[in-house]
Every structure is written in C-alpha cells, then in structure tokens.
Amino acid sequence: MCQCCAEKKDIYLPQLATVADISQMNVTEKYLRLSMDDGMFDFLPGQFVEVSIAGIGEAPITISSSPTQKGGFELVVRKIGNVSGAIHNLRKGSKLGIRGPLGKGIYPVDQAKGKNLVFICGGLGLVPQRSFINYVLDNRSEYGDVAILQGTKNYDMRLFASEIDAWSKRGDVQMLETLDEGHLAWKGHVGVVTKLIRKVQTDLKSAEILVCGPPVMYKFVLMALEEYDVPHTHIHLNLERKMKCGVGKCGHCQINSTYVCMDGPVFRYSDLATLPEAI
Amino acid sequence: MSVKKITKSDFAGFVSALIQRESVIGVQAKGDRFDFAPLESAKDLRLDYDVTLQPPKKYLLPPMEVLLTYEVGGAYQSQIDDKKFILLGVHPYDVVAINQMDELFSQDNYDAHYMTRRQNATIIACDVARSSDHVFASSMGAAVVREGYDILLTDIGDSYLMEAATAKGNELLALAKGAVEADPAALRRREDIWTHNRKSLNKHELKCDPAYLPRLLAKAYKHPVWEERAKTCFNCGSCNQVCPTCYCFNVQDDVNWDLQTGQRTRAWDGCLLEGFTKVAPNHEFRKNRADRFRHRLYRKAAYVPQKIHGQIACVGCGRCVGACLPDIANPVSVYNRLIDDLGIG
For residues A109 and A118, what is the distance between their CA atoms, to the nearest angstrom? Predict the structure, then answer.
C-alpha cells in the first residue's frame, strides 16, 4: 500500500465479517468460524483480531485456526465480559466487525524450522497455541520433534477433545494431557500441567518452548523449566492485557515500555527480563 | 522567514480579521484563570496569560470524539472531523507537546482522526509574557520553541513581533494591516525575552539535564519514593487530565434511541485511574497505586522518549503540580529526590 493510501485508511474502522459457523464447546466457551465479507485476510499464527459488536464494543481475541487452513478463520470465546457475552449471542449468518490481524504473531514461525517444539498450554491457552500447532502439523516435515502439553481444570472444560485425540494418534506428536480434577470417564493424567514437563521425550534445552495459560501457570512453568536450564531466548510466552485500540496508541496494554498489541502478544522470556510488570 | 512588527491596536484588527476568516480558538480569562475557548471578539484575547487550565490538546484530541458510526448488523462509517481552525496563543511548552503528539499519532499506525484535525489546525504560538506559579519549562528545554508553529508572536511592550514559519502562516500574516518589517532593536528585544524565558520559567528546578532522566529512572524502579508519594494519591487522574502530553484513551460504543444506529467514541483515559488495566473478570494488572503513580512518571521520562527520539514527554507546563490536591504529582520534586538519593552518573 502506498503511503497516501495508508494515511487515508482509518485504523479504527472494522471490516464486516460473517459468522460461518458457531457452536457451544462447553459451559463457557463458544467456537466461531468467520469469513471476511471482502474475502481478504492473511495472518500469522499468534496474531489477534479486534472483534466488534456494534453497540457493545470491541475485544481483542487471538486467532485459533492456522493460516494453512482456508475458508475463513476461527475464534474461541469465553463468556466473561460484555463483548464476549454479546459474541455468544451471535448466530450463523450474523454480521460482526473485525480489525486486524494485529500484533506480531509468534516469533519462531520461521526461526523454529528444523527445531524441536514444545507447547505448554493451560486451559484456554490451547486456543491461541492451536494456530501454530496446526501450522506446524500442516508443515510437519519442516520441524523436529513436537510435544503438546495440555492441562485443563476438569473433564467438562476440555477443548478440542477430538482434535487432541487425532494429534495423539498421529505418531509424530507427543501429546500429553492432564486434568486438575479427576473424573470417572478420564483415564489419563491427573494433576497440574507442570507435572507433565518431565515426561517430555524431547531435549528441552534445545527446544523452542511456547507457553500460554493463566498468569499463575507461567510462574510454575518457568520454575520447572529452570531445572532443565532452558535458555530464556527459547521460551515464548503469550501475554494478556487490557486493550482498546490494538494499534499502539491507547496505552492500556503497556507493560513498562512495551505494547502488547504492537510487540506481542507473544514474547520471548528473555525480552521480558527488563519488564518487571510482565509476569 | 521575515519577522513583522505590529502595534497592539493593529494587532487587534488582525485578530478580528482572523475571526472573520475562520474559527479561532484563543486564550481567554475564565474567572481568575485562563483557558482556550472559541474566540468571538479580539478584545477577549489574553496573550498576557500565565498558563491555561487545560492545554490546547483538547482541540486536537478532544476529551470525547466520535470515531465511527454504525448500524447494528451493518457497516461501520469513519467520522473524520475536517474543519479548519486557528489555535491562537499557544505557549512554547504546549507547542513542544503538540509536536510530540504529532509524532506519536503519525508513527507506526497513522491515526487519521488526530492527524486530520492537526493538519487543519493553524498554530499561532506566543512567547510567555508572565510565568505561572509552577512552570518549569526552562528545566525541560521547552521555554522557547523554534519549530512546530505557523506563526510565533512575541510581546515586546508596545507591539508584537510576528514570525511566520510556514506557508499557512505567511498567508495569514498578509491579513495583518499595519505590520512592518521588524527593526534590529525589536529583534534584539525578542532575543532578550528568549534569553530571559530560557532561565526564568523555572519555579521548580530540575537538578539534571532532562536527557539524563531515562538513565536515572533505569535505576530507580524499586526506590521507596513511589510508595511514599502514592500513599496520599486519590487516584483522581487530575495529573493525567491536565497534561499536554498524556494521550491515553478509552473507546466505547453507544446506541441511539432507535436501537438501530449508534457511534463508537473515544474519550480521554488516565493511567492513574483504577481500572485502567482491568480485564474481565476483574483482574487488574497495575493494581497498586504506587505502580500507577510510577508508571506515569516512567512514561514521561523513560517509555515515551523511546518513541520520540529521546525527547522527554514532560514539557514543564506545571499544570499537574497545580492540579494535584495531595501535592505529590510534581515531576521535578520526584526526579530531584531520585538524584539526591541515587546520584548522577
């Protein structure tokens, strides 16, 4: 885009999208597949969109599908605030506004080629990670070992259970899943996700490790990774903050000098060392 | 650019001509204080003011503005305010602040709402004729400005000097009847005023070169001053509200009575306010008052400078010092305390 066109464009103007599919995943989460009405949408794993519901507002939500998958993109939304509540009321064919993709996405998309990858996800943390997981699996030969660790609160809160099942059956992915609380129908691990780290067959020290989950999980995951001397440049954390504009102006998502919307939402742990507000 | 000299009575005629031509926002008395407001008559203009209650920022980034309108379920429409106007009587420190905002709103992602308004604004700056109670623009290097305005006015006693710095400024100066080329004595008088202002607009004196502040703050993050000061902070955000370089905003949707149409507005927000970093369900990332208090001063002298080529985002207007009820907001006293405790170098 030439400079004059870029300047005329309104960075706050959402483009219309249509809900191609929507379904309830569990008590609090809904799955949505959206397609842009103008058909244009290219993104990187880890990037997010500002979802607009006219009359309610905007909320930043990371894209859950991989860019390798054609036919729109997917979001998973937990009903937790005003905008997410309104998103839950949408139906197939509903119109909504989208700004984006925003953010830098995940750094190791290119840099991670040929390397071993370990995904550590807590609860809803699987949703954004899923974009890069499926991207890697669609380009499987370009990466080394892949291990996916998923920890979920309880059996009823599990997300993408059939997809996790498919990953575990592939043979070229080490899929480890645990529940915080046991359940009669659950035959797998019980306990927090950090307990799974020692079961990873890949050499953690040389792997790129991608972490996404609730803030409390980060502290324990980082402590566990310290035991393996994982270099901080290899650890990538997905951070959440309040966000309004998504384009580096409004100031809400600032962590010390860094803007989550512009420089994130995925950060190298080594880059967070100078940002005491990060974790 | 040439400098014109105009008598005060001819200058009043010039201001009237400006008012005839387009919308003029000028400094006027408001009770025993001053503020920028739409100027209807030249006699209301008060270029002898000390400081305005609000910086002229509010005419470039309004306290509340409509970004876009929508129909529920339909497309969104940008709403760009493209009216031309003149800001008359902007002090140098406020010009510096506007220059910084221009950089911040145009870099990375171009903000067409701010920038359109900015391009439609003609800035007639005016050298400070009377210092306010809390000004420290001299300490911040913002007592005198030589760029970022269209015309610069200087009160030299019986007349004004007018220097146009842009084509827009030159065009307006053509309306100034009775203006003559400034004589060398008048120009010397202006130099004297600048020399005086560079030293005297300094009711609070910073003990270091402002360029040193980012390095000072790099070692001050855990200093007790943040907690000590914040103990009496009301979280009122007055320091944010009156600051010419604060530009954080909130965005919200409103629906009209027909329940079919509405608008998305942005409104000033403040990092000192509770809830500034709060996400659903009720998690606040900068929960402690001391953290918010520190964030404001770090933004001014450590974070924003990284975006504007090292300039400090505090211009020394002193408005926050006067607006803060518990009297903790004064940046100079905080920075000086850090210098006393941590030293320079």
Answer: 13
B113 neighbourhood in chain A, CB within 8 Å: 10, 12
From first CA to last CA, the distance across chain A in angstroms is 37
What residues of A are in contact with residue B264 (Cβ under 8 Å)?
A: 12, 57-58
**Amino acid at the residue B75:** A
Q: Model's pTM, two decimal places? A: 0.94
Helices (H), B219-317: 225-230, 238-241, 289-298
Q: Kindly state whether A250 is in contact with chain B, defined as any CB-CB distance less than 8 angstroms.
A: yes
CATH topology of domain A3-102: Elongation Factor Tu (Ef-tu); domain 3 (2.40.30)
Question: Measured between CB atoms, does B278 come within 8 Å of chain A?
Answer: yes
The one-letter code for the residue type at B41 is S
Q: Which two tokens stand for residue B232?
A: 């009496």
Q: Can you tell me the ipTM of this complex?
A: 0.91
B73 touches chain A (CB under 8 A): yes
Name the DSSP class of A7: H
By CA distance, what is B307's nearest residue in A?
A257
Q: Looking at chain A, which residues constitute the CATH 3.40.50.80 domain(s)?
A: 108-238
Instruction: Using the Cα atoms of residue A250, residue A256, residue A262 and residue A264 in order, give the sign of their dihedral.
Output: negative
Q: Are the C-beta atoms of residues B96 and A28 closer than 8 Å to each other?
A: no
Distance from C-alpha of B122 to C-alpha of B176, rounded to nearest angstrom: 16
Residue range A108-238 in CATH 3.40.50.80? yes
pLDDT at residue number B243? 97
pLDDT block averages, 10 residues each, chain A of length 279:
59 96 95 93 94 95 94 94 94 95 84 92 95 95 96 95 95 95 93 94 94 91 94 93 94 94 93 86
